[in-house]
Structures are given as structure tokens and as C-alpha cells.
Design brief:
Strand order of the largest sheet: 1-4-3-2
Oligomer: single chain
Radius of gyration: 13 Å
Number of domains: 1
Low-confidence stretches: none
CATH superfamily: RelE-like
Mean pLDDT: 93
Order of helices and strands: EHHEEE
Helix content: 25-40%
Largest sheet: 4 strands, mixed
CATH topology: YaeB-like fold
């Protein structure tokens, strides 16, 4: 299993997503955060298994029907780049 590193951009994305959802449903926000973190951390097991990203050199994993984890292979392991809503224009 490759190591998984969260870049600051991905941490910021996760924080914004969770904060937004927590305003109306804190329990759903906590559940989603757990799912996104677990799924991202498990990408080190079979990182090439998921579809190639819209940006060269990346891959995309649909963790939840509404959220996509964007990651890439690096020398140090797997880097989590962003988490985006499925309706969000990406790349922007």
C-alpha cells in the first residue's frame, strides 16, 4: 500500500464542504467527512484502479454521489489534490 498525503488544497476543500453541510445537518456532515477521509486514505491500495482525471496526470474517485476526490501518483505516494462537488466546474 502506498502512503497517502493530503495537500492543503484538499484539506481546505474538505473543511469547506463539512462546514457548509454542518450548518443544516451536523450529523450528515460528520458522516460525509468520515466517508471522504476513509475513501481518500484507502486510495493507496489500488490507486490506478480509478478513472483518469480531466487534468493530465490525475485520477478521480467518486467517493459519494456528490463528491469526487482528485488525486495523483507522486514519488512519495498518493497525493490528494482536491475534493469537488460533482456539479462544480472542474477544472475551473
Amino acid at each position: 500500500m502506498q502512503s497517502v498525503v493530503w495537500l492543503d488544497t484538499a484539506v481546505e476543500d474538505l473543511d469547506c464542504i463539512v462546514a457548509f453541510i454542518a450548518k443544516s445537518n451536523p450529523m450528515a456532515a460528520a458522516k460525509l467527512a468520515s466517508q471522504l477521509i476513509e475513501d481518500a486514505d484507502n486510495l493507496g491500495i489500488f490507486p490506478a484502479h480509478y478513472r483518469r482525471g480531466r487534468v493530465a496526470g490525475t485520477h478521480e474517485f467518486v467517493s459519494h454521489p456528490n463528491y469526487v476526490i482528485i488525486y495523483r501518483h507522486a514519488l512519495t505516494g498518493i497525493e490528494i489534490l482536491n475534493i469537488v462537488h460533482s456539479r462544480q466546474p472542474y477544472p475551473n
